[in-house]
Amino acid sequence: MNTQQNQIHKKISIAHFSWEFPPAIWGGLGTFATELTKQQIAQGHQVTVFAINDANSLSPEEVQNGITVYRPKLIDITQSLSIVSNPDLQSWGKHLSFFSDVFSYNLLSAKTLVDTIAQSSNGHHVDMIEAHDWLGIFGGMMAKKALNVPLIFHVHSTEHGRSVGNGSPTIQHIEKTGAENADGVITVSYAMQEELQQLGFPAEKIRVCWNGIDPEKYDTSKIPIEKRKELRRRYGIEDDEIFLFFIGRLVTVKGAIQLVEAMPQILEQFPKVKLVMLGVGDLDNAIRSMVQDLSIADNVILRTEFVPEDERILHYAASDVVVLPSLYEPFGIVCTEAMSMGKPVVVGARGINGMREQIISSGDGQCGIHINPFDPSDIAWGVNKILSSPEEWKNMGENGRKRVYELFTWQHVAARAMDIYEEFLR
User: Fold this and answer.
1) Taking Cα atoms as reference points, which of 112, 145, 152, 119 lies closest to residue 16?
2) Which of helix, strand or coil describes residue 157?
3) For residue range 77-118, what is the model confidence (pLDDT) as tens digits?
4) Which CATH code of 3.40.120.10, 3.40.50.2000, 3.40.20.10, 3.40.50.720 fits the domain covering 13-212+409-425?
5) How far apart are CA 304 and CA 220, in angstroms?
């Protein structure tokens, strides 16, 4: 992963099948596709993106910062799918309309790409197709077969992992088939590489390319101290209190429940801790009930709404310690953000968890603590260990930010991705 940023790569034409792309971004997949394509354009490559047309309200074709973006208007094929679908898809009920959107997006995007190439009179071509997650692999496979060009399947997460071992057999089959049909498979961490091999993905095809961050944007020194204090006051956090920050979806795999369960043990040793949890998800009510049952309502602030990026950056800047006890985390961009903001980070490090590759938990380069996210007592131990040494917070934060510059900038990510492309182009 020590790719040189200034390595010269052959200029190629790349087509991305990415369900998410600005302005329709909901998670890490969209952020990755946005930043990677931006770097690829800067390197002189030709980039085309096929993305979801959210509610059919967006332009079907535009040029965005040098990137040609197609968003085919979707056709509702739910009724037709219900006739031919398997029992698993039929069990989706009203959610079958989502699968309809996914299939329609892939089919129309692949047709658009193939037609664009076939009808082009200006020498337009595609050298490489990259399909992101199961949401884009249908289109990638269709276009690969029609155009006879290499296909990279970029796996950001798996259905097995997202659902903690359950999930849709159909989606799992799509992922496996995508890997078998692709020339190469990129995944976001060595932990994910291990998971894919366990799931039967062809090991010889898998390559690791970490996600990245813009450390110039995620920089605490650019946030005025008064703005940080103002946010703390909004949450009722006094100057002599500790701002513990959790950011992420309120779903099982993010470990939010275990973190709340750990709070009484944290407060027993450090009563002046206030935990701010920022995120949305189906565990909202369960967490609120647990907070009341544990009598820690004065120390846990739950903010369940989506906030823009600049406000998320402000939260990092205002916090003292970031805690991310994910049970399953393919990479964990929030960890990279916290590191870039110069904050010590407590991360889940059991099971499939890419954050353990980011955080050094001991020695001269220590930037955080590894914990067992399945055990609330271990979460409390990790948080308390950091809180016991406030004089080390600054050093940990500086180490984390330095590590971001060394390994996790988008320039590093794009260079690594191009290395992988060239390997499979050969």
Assistant:
1) 152
2) coil
3) 999 999 999 999 999 999 999 999 999 999 999 999 999 886
4) 3.40.50.2000
5) 24
